Amino acid sequence: MTHTHTSKCRLGTSVLLAALALPQVVQAQSDEALLQRIDALEQRLIELETTTVLSDPETSVKRIEVFIDANGIEHDTQVPGSQRVVTYQRQRVFRRQTINEKIEEALADAESRNVQLGVDAAIVMQNVQQNRGQTQGADGSTYQLASTDLYFTAGLAQYTMFFADIVGLSGTPQGDGTDGELAQTNGYGARLTQQNDLSLREAWLMTQLWDQQLSLTIGRVDLTNYFDNNAAANDETSQFLSDSLVNNPALGLAENGAGMALVYDPKGAFSARLGYQQSTDAATNLSDSLYQLVEIVYRANPLRMGEGNYRLWYRQDNTIGGGLSAHGLSFDQKLSAGITAFTRYGNNEVEGNSENDIHYSAGVQFANGLGFNPEDAWGIGYSGSDLADKSNERLVEGYYNLRIAEKLQLSFHLAYLTEKAAAAEAVSYLVPGTRLQASF
Amino acid sequence: MTKLKKLLLACPLLVLVMAAPAVATPMSDPGDKEIKITDPSKVVVIVNRDSNDIAFLDVETNKIIGSVFLGRNVNPHMAMMSRDGRWVVTGGTRANKAYIIDVATLTLVKEIPVDFAPEHLAFSPDGRYYYQGNPDGDSVSVIDMASLTEIKRIRGFAEPLNITFTPDGTKAYVGNYGAHWVGVIDVTRHELLKKIHVGTVPGIAALDPERYLGEIKGISNVSIGNDGRYLYAADGDLGIVGVIDSREDKVVKTIRVGADPWRAYMSHGGRYAVVANNGDETVSFIDTEKNEVVATLESGPDMMGINFAAHKAFVISSSSGFLYVYDMETLKPAGRIKIGTNLQIETATTDTAEQKLYLASSTDNSVYVIDAASEEVTRVPNVGLYPWGTHILSSKDNYCH
After folding, report:
1. For residue B131, which phi and psi values (nearest 5 degrees)?
2. CATH superfamily of B114-268
3. Do A267 and B333 touch (CB under 8 A)?
4. Which of the two ends of chain B, N or C, has the fewest CB atoms closer than 10 A to its terminal CB?
5. B207/A62 touch (CB, cutoff 8 Å), yes or no
6. Are B260 and B235 in contact (CB under 8 A)?
7. Are B294 and B285 in contact (CB under 8 A)?
8. Residue contacts between A and B (CB atoms, under 8 Å)
9. CA dihedral A327, A332, A333, A335 (to 10 degrees)
10. Cβ–Cβ < 8 Å for B178, B195
11. Min Cα separation B349/chain A (Å)
12. Which of A37-41, B306-310, B391-395 has the lowest mean pLDDT?
């Protein structure tokens, strides 16, 4: 009994002590939780101060599909008798963004709504040294051309844009025997129609149809931008300077004009292009000077050595007489990651002559780290023209394009040109030159 | 009311207010929960950035089984399932926390504070550790999956984006987008072991401060070949892919690709590393036997990922809403698949049978299921807000942006 009593007494004491201690334990736990919470809040404050986030709910507008029943009631899911309708609705989400992200987003949005302006400027200087044939006026002369293109682009609607190119050209192109009627050692010279005047080179609307497989461009166009786009020899701003290594002379398109270009490209092995344009500003209506061009492009990867583009084109120009046609090929093929070989062939009818002009070219481009700087490129090309009047021209050009900065490049060119008119002595020229090109 | 009374009244209120978020945190013991997923290999994990949840899609019915809400303003970035299918982990970019989800019961079991802006992550091959990259904190958090705690925070990185473990789990390679080096972590000690210099900025860069000092586009990912011997690290600013020999941890070859390469994606057979070059909108195919570019093909803008299935490569062009398709046999373009207009498509995962792609489309809150052979597209709408990425257990195409 005594033992039992003692036990009870001990038990009672323990319960009493525990009861007395409980508030202290609870208090301690509460204090600890509070301290932990304060630590967490301090950490959160540090994070907020560091990242400066906006915690407002993000608001955006979504394109949604809803279902409208016969009574005009909108449902999220289809109900009997309802019709699917596309509408737009505001949506709020809890997305936390930093102020930097917000500012970047706003700037990008504003930029996308504005008209974009681009500038492409070039200064080309060349010297001519005659080393064969009867001395011509160009011997020892130095020529300089300056060209500036101002581009304007603006998005007008879904997959629809406007583009305009205003060009100003001035300088002293070779025209007294270096090129004659055959070719020009400066592709910019081919574009010089008026000195010191701004001219509208292109102005067109482009839209894309059928899941963007078909691109339709209409306005004042330069069809050479859409056809014969050789990867290694098509750009006087970064590749060869000589016109015969920029465009196929057999294309025979000297001026831009009103027209249209259709490009069908399902992004597979084949694509096709079709275009027409007014080929002379002197024409009184489009049908009097209709230049039409069609091209098929095949993309290949023979022996897995790299991609290649194989183009076959045909053109018809009714500006002269009953119309003159031409056809040609334009191939470029990667031989390795940095080496691209190219070749061109063109055959065009000539007014009043049963024989045709024949033009051909070939060459190789080295890029992709095969220069002094990673983005430099260099190349060597050869072109020849055997004309219906029995005159001919041969040209070899080498260039090195030094990429100084993303927007600035300097290239060095050396061309050797031989011209031989029918029943005349051949003349040859060595033409060193430089080109400073800025694009921004 | 006296000051003392006010204080006495205010203190409990303050405690209550402070404690409220902790009470609201939806963490619970999964032991007493209903089993919702019995086969984790049959679900697609969807990261919904703006609804702040992880959704689970049944691959057989294309229906959402359920989702796990992480909390407001968490904004999860990438999710990955542990190899045993037990856990899904994700980094909450704006909450600075890692989240552990029990897959079977779809229960959030743990929130683990990590460093700033956790984004990409990886599990060690044995599943013991989960490495969480914290790009804004320049650190990698090491989460022990046994204790579900951060056991170490490895510092010294420069915007660490993606983490790649070697198959034997001894090392992990970290792509630093804010630098031109790859970090090598010793996984046994969880320490940054080496910095592998991938490429040198050309001297002429001094003339172009706008490009080289304005913003850095370094290495987003280190992609590993099937045998684990070589790794491929694309450097955006330098336009190169550095081939790293994992035995020596050094670059054994530098391959020049297109402009601003985002990262290399390894074809499932391991023959090709396909690089998305966002600067010139091309893709470069690197033959991994020769370590040479064997094709550079036109693609679309803003490429976010590349998946492989049915002997094709599917390149996700985010802002155009197209998948560009390439024949992996001939290395030629094979058309493109239009997903939709005015869509921002994100990343995709490929099922383990390599027949279907599950593509997240953020702007219409959908996942698109693409049959790789027929190229038929099925839309699964309303998967959550702003689905940002998808994941399938054991898929060979589990990646993030």
Report:
1. -95, 125
2. YVTN repeat-like/Quinoprotein amine dehydrogenase (2.130.10.10)
3. yes
4. N
5. no
6. no
7. yes
8. 124
9. 130
10. no
11. 23
12. A37-41
